[in-house]
Amino acid sequence: MSFELRTTPGCPNSSPALELFHAALRAEGLDPGLVTVLELTSEAEAAALQFHGSPSFISDGRDLFPSAAGTGLSCRVYPTGSGLSGLPSLESLRTGVRGPGAAA
Questions:
Q1: pLDDT tens-digit profile of 28-85?
Q2: Residue 9 in domain
Q3: How far apart are CA 65 and CA 96, in angstroms?
Q4: Is 78 a member of any domain?
Q5: Contact, 85 vs 49, CB < 8 A?
Q6: Are 64 and 97 within 8 A, CB to CB?
Q7: What's the mean per-residue pLDDT of the chain?
Q8: CB distance 6 to 17 below 8 Å
Q9: Alpha-carbon torsion, ordered 17, 64, 79, 10, to 10 deg
Q10: Is 104 domain-assigned?
């Protein structure tokens, strides 16, 4: 498995997102060192990678939180139990890491 955190320059959620990704992988018994970070700097790059905003959590090339939103160098929000947030909940990220159809 490969994991990638995609961000944009200056995103205030980049560091917390990386910490959250590491925590989710540890909780699933996976090596946090598997995460690579890719900083996107152009709209063309965002379109080519189907980047729906920063931060985006990717596993084996698949966005763990599929979105119908357009692509671009923007901030991303995630629905959580307490409203929209710049980060997903740890539990929803763990579910995404487990893969499609995985039990919570």
A1: 999 999 999 999 999 999 999 999 999 999 999 999 999 988 999 999 999 999 999 9
A2: yes
A3: 7
A4: yes
A5: no
A6: yes
A7: 94
A8: no
A9: 30
A10: no
Kindly report the pTM of this predicted structure.
0.93
- Number of domains the chain is built from: 1
Neighbours of 31 (CB within 10 A): 11
Residue span of the structural domain in which 78 resides: 3-98
Confidence of residue 103 (pLDDT cuts 50, 70, 90): very low
77-92: per-residue pLDDT in tens?
A: 999 999 999 999 999 9
Structure tokens at 18: 């990386």
In a domain, 61, yes or no: yes
Residue 83, phi-psi category: left (phi > 0), alpha (psi -120 to 50), beta (remainder): left
